[in-house]
């Protein structure tokens, strides 16, 4: 239930405009491992329904989303586009998220009880009247939060007190994409004019503009996440050629290029463990590439039937992605990639090797005559 009185029994809910995974903190006896995930949907307004937020349970075993939301929150009036959710950023702890609308950003806190979940809308004056934002990003450690506006205004806050680390009204002409490095030291941002900049977060200042030729456009950007190889991935458009380029973050020089999806890219994402890179195209196709090999591991054609994919987000615990488009809403796809080894599986292998060695040792000495 929503504790701020914003629950709604609306008519036909609007299409999903944005979506995000939420990993429940802790777990506890009331939360099984297969039901430890939630999905939050932002829905647009219709003639009979206001803009909404839906919170739904996700079961990893059958890879299914619950048919009915755990709770539903009204964001505005019926037929009003101003309050339609545009983007959602979830704090890594899983206990709060920020939702962007045309007016600004709203903060929601999740309160987990043994048998229910409450969603509380919290006042956050530094975020409420910032206007429409194109990009939202939490740092991996949850101590930084950044927003990039349609007007090119960049703001970086310390979380949760929202003290300002950087406030640059003219960071770009208008934001295209944004990401924070794994160590929370850098922020990369790209503009609708094809430029890209690196910002030093703690110093609250720009560090470097990424080099590009006059006929090149840098569009999407993501930092690596495996903690071993500090790379920056960017999609680069040069004429009719579309590639994914890799840069070394020690000197911001280009290391190489790879043609992965071979068509105009609308969005880019990296899995939380850094092993996979997802690209969504402007005609509704997706691909997932192995970062180590930089080869496509899973190709999804016409996931959104010709509509540009607006976002792709990897599931925090499973090889599953959720993708959204303005025309078709949200789609959840289970990836056809090698499964990760679980801790119990590794210990099972060690135990099997130990038992096998013990049997061989016993058999050898039983049938060997020692002089």
From TrEMBL:
Membrane protein topology class: Single-pass membrane protein
Keyword Repeat among record annotations: yes
UniProt repeat feature WD, residue ranges: 183-209
Gene3D superfamilies according to UniProt: YVTN repeat-like/Quinoprotein amine dehydrogenase
This protein's GO CC annotations: endoplasmic reticulum membrane
SUPFAM superfamilies, per database record: WD40 repeat-like
Keywords annotated in UniProt: Endoplasmic reticulum, Membrane, Protein transport, Repeat, Transmembrane, Transmembrane helix, Transport, WD repeat
Transmembrane segments: 344-365
GO terms assigned for molecular function: guanyl-nucleotide exchange factor activity
GO biological process, one term: regulation of COPII vesicle coating
Primary location group: endoplasmic reticulum
Subcellular compartments: Endoplasmic reticulum membrane
Name this protein carries in UniProt: SEC12-like protein 1
């Amino acid at each position: 239930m929503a504790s701020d009185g914003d629950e709604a029994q609306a008519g036909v809910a609007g299409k999903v405009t944005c979506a995000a995974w939420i990993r429940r903190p802790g777990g506890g006896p009331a939360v099984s491992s297969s039901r430890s995930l939630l999905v939050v949907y932002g829905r647009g307004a219709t003639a009979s329904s206001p803009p909404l937020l839906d919170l739904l349970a996700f079961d990893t075993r059958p890879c299914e989303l619950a048919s009915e939301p755990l709770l539903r929150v009204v964001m505005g009036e019926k037929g009003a586009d101003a309050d339609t959710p545009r983007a959602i950023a979830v704090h890594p702890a899983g206990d709060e998220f920020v939702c962007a609308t045309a007016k600004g950003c709203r903060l929601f806190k999740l309160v987990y009880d043994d048998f229910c979940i409450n969603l509380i809308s919290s006042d956050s004056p530094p975020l409420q009247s910032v206007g429409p934002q194109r990009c939202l990003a939490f740092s991996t450690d949850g101590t930084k939060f950044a927003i990039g506006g349609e007007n090119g205004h960049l703001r970086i806050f310390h979380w949760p007190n929202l003290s300002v680390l950087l406030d640059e009204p003219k960071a770009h002409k208008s934001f295209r994409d944004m990401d924070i490095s794994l160590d929370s030291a850098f922020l990369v941002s790209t503009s609708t004019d094809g430029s890209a900049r690196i910002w030093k977060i703690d110093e609250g200042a720009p560090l470097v503009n990424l080099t590009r030729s006059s006929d090149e456009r840098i569009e999407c950007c993501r930092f690596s996440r495996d903690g071993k190889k500090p790379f920056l991935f960017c999609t680069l458009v040069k004429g009719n050629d579309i590639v994914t380029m890799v840069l070394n973050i020690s000197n911001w020089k280009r290391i190489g290029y790879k043609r992965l999806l071979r068509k105009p890219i609308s969005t880019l994402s990296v899995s939380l463990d850094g092993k996979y890179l997802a690209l969504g195209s402007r005609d509704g196709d997706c691909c997932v590439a192995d970062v180590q090999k930089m080869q496509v591991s899973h190709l999804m054609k016409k996931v959104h039937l010709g509509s540009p994919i607006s976002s792709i987000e990897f599931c925090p615990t499973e090889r599953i992605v959720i993708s959204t488009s303005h025309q078709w809403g949200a789609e959840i796809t289970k990836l056809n990639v090698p499964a990760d080894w679980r801790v119990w599986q590794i210990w099972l292998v060690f135990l099997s090797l130990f038992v096998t060695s013990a049997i061989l040792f016993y058999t050898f000495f039983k049938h060997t005559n020692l002089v």
